[in-house]
Amino acid sequence: MRFRFTASAQVAAVACATVLLAGCASTDRPSQAASAAQQAQPVQVKVFVAAMFEIGQNTGDRAGEFQHWYERYFRNAQPIAVAGALNPVYCNTDGVCGSVLGMGKVNSSASMQAIVLNPQFNFDKAYYVISGVAGTPPSRGTIGDVTWGSWLVDYDLGHRWAPEEGQPGAPVFVPRKGYEDYRRFALNPALVQAAYAMTRAVPLQDSESAQRYRMRYPDAAARKAPSVHVGTHITGDTFFHGPGLSREAQYIAKLYGADDYVATEMEAAAIALVLKRTHGTDRILSLRGSVNFDQGNPKETTQAHLDPKPGETAGGFAETVANVAVVGSTFVDTVVKNWPQWQNGVPAQR
Q1: What's the confidence (pLDDT) of residue 39?
Q2: CA-to-CA distance for 76 and 81, rounded, in angstroms?
Q3: Sign of CA dihedral 251, 253, 258, 261
Q4: What percentage of the chain reaches a pLDDT higher than 90?
Q5: Is the pLDDT of residue 286 over 50?
Q6: d(CA 263, CA 257)
């Protein structure tokens, strides 16, 4: 950067250099040094919203995981480019920031690390809402549900073999030693319960197509209207599917001491590891909306469920991404509005 000094500024600069006086300033007004210092001040982040994908633009078309957040908080925000991140970061004047990190563990965690290490932001007191869509087992949830993650469990870290190569009916997975510190994360129960308490009664949208689709399943949980609840989120780069792999996911959750598996997603455990190594996990929330079941109904094969005929999809995607944002924004708005009580940690709940 090249600066143009006035004559009086040049004299002042020479005087400073000659007598080595600290703190000498240019006589230009306003001070260029002060202006540069103001520009260099990092954004004090109160809440960071991490989405994984957007379908098209951030506003004005079909909504993916970020559009509702963008329209609520970032319409007037300028994009902040971050080297190493997939997409820019947006921040509003209230300290709410957000970005689309990319799908999958590597994609999302690489973006998250680039953002949290970037000097343009101060994350020392930030809360994180990892926000996106998910699948759910029909025994635990339904289309349109929104769940707060109590545990984040990595589905992939271990040893697997073909079922016919083991004992009939026995699990085909064992954890690999050495991954104990990053294959599962118990999220701050005080934070999770506070988020759940303030959002459990939030009205959720539903769709006629999702209502019809639920009736294909005999499970009581699958047939219910959408609701907000809490449970383990399983992170896997593989889009595992079918009753057998769903049981395996539940087995892994229990093997690691977590509670019931309720959502399958692709990023949260990896993002949590990045944050654990930089700012800790006490302020992480994982928020997922269920847009599909992790298996077909008893009358269809897994392959048929993965590749449905026209008109036989679940529907409810648009309603679910709206549900995620309305639930999540309830938490975000509460934290921002009551920042003096939240900045140093989760306030005691009444």
Answers
A1: 56
A2: 16
A3: negative
A4: 80
A5: yes
A6: 16
pLDDT of residue 312: 81
State the Cα–Cα distance between residues 112 and 100, nearest whole angstrom.
Answer: 10
Pairs from 334-343 (Cβ < 8 Å, separation ≥ 24): 334/198, 335/46, 335/47, 335/127, 336/46, 336/47, 336/94, 336/95, 336/96, 339/46, 339/95, 342/46, 342/127, 343/46, 343/125
If one counts every other C-beta atom within 10 angstroms of the C-beta of residue 35, the result is: 11
> Could you tell me if 73 and 92 are in contact, meaning their C-beta atoms sit under 8 angstroms apart?
yes
- Closest by CA to 159, choosing from 265, 248, 241, is 248
Q: List, in sequence order, the alpha helices (H) in the chain.
A: 7-19, 32-40, 67-69, 105-116, 189-199, 208-214, 220-223, 243-255, 268-278, 302-306, 317-337, 339-342
* Cβ atoms of residues 116 and 197 within 8 Å: no
- Do 173 and 153 meet the contact criterion of CB atoms below 8 Å apart? no
Do 24 and 45 meet the contact criterion of CB atoms below 8 Å apart?
no
Q: Could you tell me whether strands 47-51 and 96-100 are parallel, antiparallel, or unpaired per DSSP bridges?
A: parallel
Q: Are 111 and 231 in contact (CB under 8 A)?
A: no
| Neighbour count for residue 209 (Cβ, 10 Å) | 16
Average pLDDT over all residues of the chain: 89
Please give the class, per CATH, of domain 124-340.
Answer: alpha beta
